[in-house]
Amino acid sequence: MSTAQVWRLDTQATTLLLLAQHEHDVPAIAWYGQPLPDSLDDMALAQVTDLPLPMAKLDTSVALTLFPQASTGIDCMPALRGHRNGAGFAHSLRRTNVSVDDFSIQIELEDDAAELTVVLQIETHDSGVLSVTTELCNTGESEFTVDHLASATLPLPPDHSQCLTLHGRWGLEFQTHRSDIGPVALRLENNRGRTSHECYPGFVTGVQGFSEQFGAVQLAQLAWSGSHCTTIEQLSDGRRYMQTGIAVDPGELTLAAGQSITTPSVYVIRSHGINRASQAMHSYARRQLLPPWTRTPRPVHANSWEALYFDHDLGKLYQLIDAAKAIGAERFILDDGWFKARRSDNAGLGDWTVDRAVYPDGLAPLVSYVRKADMQFGLWFEPEMVNPDSDLYRNHPDWVLHLAPYETPLARNQLVLNLALEEVFDYLLEHISALVAEHHIDYIKWDYNRDVVMGGDGKSSQLLKQVPACYQLMATLNERFPELEIESCSSGGARADWGILQHTGRVWTSDSIDAIDRAQIQRGYSLFTPPEIMGAHVGHAVAHLTGREINIHTRAIIALQGQFGYEVDARHLSQSEILTLNYYVKLYKRHREWICESTSWRLDSPVRHLVCSGLVSEDKQQSLWFAVAESSLSTTAPGVLYPCGLNVNMQYTVTLASENFDQLAHFSKHIPQWLSHPVTLSGHLLMSVGLTLPILPAQCAILLEITAV
In 234-309, which ranges are continuous DSSP H helix? Predict the structure, then answer.
């Protein structure tokens, strides 16, 4: 007689079915995806999903469950590896209880012999996003050392044969890489102590050849801002799975008697085409994750960094503020260089007091000048770091992460503070709070400029404690100053995961504001994160990180894909450049309110180096569409742009919103008529027939506005 059991969760967007073939088995996912009919025969489901038993294997079939264990003989990565001083290296956790409510399933597992319990928490959300966490408790009397603990292990649909991952480097983050899922495990591991430029903790799996608009896909990401590891693998019997979680240093994670740990959440969505999955992720982030102030129109930033670097001369700063105001900025950010001894990146980090040699009357006169210009004031901090050449380090060398007796290598001439130390936490909270309170600071650009090497307290690794300590510091500041906005910057986009975004509401996407590189950087970033919290600035004509010269229209158009701002030295702009930037900032201000709730579309392009995307308002009344030629195209013309997400029954007017018609006309004997004479078409026709694009020379971008009549 069968003892199979089925548990079910339904939302408007998805159905989740969990199945256990036998009593006490850990459940496996039998279905997750589009809604299924109300009535299901549990026995029939168990029969059709019963596994065959091949030769040369164990004498019993082994399900690929939500918590695979080595003791079952499954040949995938186990969800838990650990021991008690070298003993008790295996365990056999069995299901003791399952609790189901309207939106969640809680699965309780227990192993009396190993003296361990596990609770798997699965929650569904209206957007269709699924979240999974794992709690491990040591119920024994002795210490249990955890070498590996997965947040989630999820089987992949049988036809998911490819994977898309995000990689990169400083100045070129969020680059996509496609791999086949085969018998050689794809292991994505990051031990840098932060999310990293190199290995983002999110990925897409799908059917062969899946794309933005076609093919069944699954998006998943780990909400964790530290070291992490992911395995995506095909087993010898053909089953495929993904597993992700935190990465731990040797001996770092030990549970005392009665102690437990809960992993970071993994967020998952299945859909048709990457766009639909991204849109569900964006919707969840907006409703459940991001600070409430991100739902308000995002102000135009002007940052001092690439204009002045460490040259904090008050006269130059006043000129820069005036110039920023003239091009429509609404928030001025004083970047690195304002604090004691900070004339370069060699000294001063950790001494969060104003440099009186540069600011003899403190920051008050500068802040007052910014306020009189009717702008908000923001300030740069790098709280988790310290220069050896600082009073803080000279007084407290034991406050840095290190491993005796080895010397920790410097990066950007700095070391990492041990934020888990109470005295370090209190020191930073006191100094940041004092400045925020004194100057009513509106915004903090919170930087984190190096990887962690030998992140210990002298003896043992402390990396796992760093991340929650950072979260707690941000959360405490947000509690003290509810109006304070915090941006996550980590030498660009090296800390842009959903863990940090529960405490911040803006990401500095990359230190490179080369608009051509930004086209792909911002495209990769948008897989998981909505556009309104993406810092996107207009830089200098010659990009500081790449030396590439890019025209002002392309720079402005690509900056309009996110939260618009300036890194340019506005003091040296020509009158023509000022007028051009004023045009684009007015365009941004006209649209930014609906962009906060917009639907993002990345378009598939048959032409290499042509990057097309769009933003559509929630009511489908307004949309902006971007086409960027990163370099010379392989065809003489770029072809057709097919808008998505419009209302088929509405009439829309199509106009060229970018002010570069003359530039486009220069490269054509004839330019498509709609570019010079706005046309009105139905949403159905626009999405079916599309818009013929003009000749686009290398490094050229255009912006289209499609508005309901």
Answer: 274-284, 305-308
Structure token pair of residue 262: 């809960």
509-552 pLDDT, tens digit per residue, is: 999 999 999 999 999 999 999 999 999 999 999 999 999 999 99
585: tokens are 């900032």
Angle of helix 364-372 relative to helix 422-439, nearest 10 degrees? 50
Residue 637 dihedral angles phi and psi, to the nearest 5°: -125, 150
What is the rounded CA–CA span in Å between residue 171 and residue 177? 17
| Structural tokens at position 78 | 């186990």
Is 511 part of the annotated catalytic residue set?
Answer: yes
Task: Calculate the alpha carbon distances from 497 to 124, 493, 525 in Å.
Answer: 20, 9, 10
For residue 559, the SS3 value is: helix
447 is catalytic: yes
Residues 335, 511, 517, 569: which is the catalytic one? 511
Q: What is the pLDDT of residues 56-98, one digit of tens each?
A: 787 787 889 999 999 888 889 999 999 999 998 999 999 999 9
Residue reference for tokens 């007084």: 395
Supply the angle between the helices 364-372 and 314-326 in degrees, to the nearest 10.
20
Find the distance separating the first CA and the last CA of the chain, reported in whole Å: 65
CA 62 to chain centre: 35
Residue of 249, 355, 447, 569 marked active site: 447
Q: Give the span between the Cα atoms of 451 and 411, in whole angstroms.
A: 8
Predicted TM-score of the model (pTM): 0.96
Taking residue 495's Cβ as centre, other Cβ atoms within 10 Å add up to 26
Q: Measuring CA to CA, which residue among 391, 538, 90, 460 is closest to residue 250? A: 460
